Amino acid sequence: MKNQKETSWAEIRAMLKEIAENQKETDRRFKETDRRFKETEKLIKENAKLIGGISASNGEFCEEYFINTIKANPTFLGEKFMVFENPKPRPVVINDQYDLVLENGNKVVLIEMKYKAKVSDVKGMLLKLKSYRANFPMYDDYKIYLCLASFRFRDYVKARAAEDGIVLLQQRGEKIEVVSENLRFF
Prior knowledge:
rod-shaped
């Protein structure tokens, strides 16, 4: 058996002092890390707000472009239409928003505008049809086209829209082009 060295009280006090100093340094580092974390969290929130603002601006730009272009030439598939921007139903049966509605006496075109269209936007058009019919029953006998306008459509979005019979409108230079293959009314 080896001899164990006995520790003096002075050595124990010195070790406890060193432990206390190490604990103070650890606490200081934790406080500094916490301060940096809070600063980073604040920057992330500010950036999220900025990105949200950019996204909203892109959406507004898209809507402005399509609304102005359609108002300047309110024709759809060769027919003239009246243009209604954000029509509000009275009374509201299903809470929904309609970016642009075209109407010509026997047809309605519901146009939803997205800066960059997604498959979920295509699916959402069918829900928009349901809410529109509920909110505007005076158009029950009308043929209704569902239309998604966007600056960008990926191929899989175009395929899903064609499958569902949703009309797609896309910017082509200074004109709007119908890019759907399987147009149908509901």
